[in-house]
Design goal:
The protein has ten helices and nine strands. It is α/β, with parallel strands linked by helices and 311 residues long. Helix 1 runs parallel beside helix 4, helix 5 crosses helix 6 and helix 9 crosses helix 10. This is Glycerophosphodiester phosphodiesterase.
Length: 311
Amino acid sequence: MAYDPVFDIEAHRGGRALLPENTLPAFANALTMGVDTLELDVGVTADGEVVVSHERGLNPDLARDVRGAYVPPPGPPFVTLKLADVRSYDVGQIRPDSSYAKQFPDQHTIPGTRIPTLKELFALVRKSGNTRVRFNIETKIDPNHPDETLDPQVFVAKLLGLIEAEGFSNRVLIQSFDWRALLLVQQQAPKIPTVYLTLQRGSGQTVALDKPTNWTAGFSPTDHGGSLPQTIKAAGGAIWSPYFGDVTAALIAEAHELGLRVVVWTVNKREDMARMMELRVDGIISDRPDLLREVAGEKGITLPAGTPVAP
């Protein structure tokens, strides 16, 4: 079965099953391999630098100080650290006794790896000569922990200012579970597509079909026929990015009828990748971009060319 040639192969945090997450070595590996989109997360330091990190601060499972000791939990928020402080930590090896280490036992360690800035990632992509790869950038803001980041207005202004200054406005997408950030992007940079992240299960649930939550900026499916795709369309989204376990063929079809693309996260098993492709999702975010390329190729999807580069 042939699929849409614009299918989006996204390397989650650069492909964290392979190399340390959200680092230049991981992104260089993804560029060399060939992906459509580099998926990443950003925070802002006390001195206003946009850094690439999934957590709102130093991750105790990743960050080691100059003595080689992992930071005790909870790690300090970036908003309390200057870039020079952030640079002093090594994030090239997972804490061996952590559940994270058990999740990715084959991740190649690179001691001495530092948390990069978004500007450095843009420079790496320029160096690679890749003029096509996109950036799916998540704003790490949590409405339940407002003291751990800048407020959404300042955060988004910092991020958009850097993207514009670096000349990448036409190659980025902004994603967030906190829809306040996405509404700000739509107001301030309407040409940048917004990606509405959702999770409908477990302790980390961010959306509910029967009520608004702290994450949805006042929007609720109860005002849109109980439909999450219709809610995202009403909010102004271009892409719906749900946890892959939350989607059905009917929901994907509904989203497509509304003009929304559907890019699911985070899919790491071959059989799940194949099933998502058969459901006609528009893209997959994966910690295993190598395996995702393999499955996509088997499904007749055109694979992006790699652009070899050293970090």
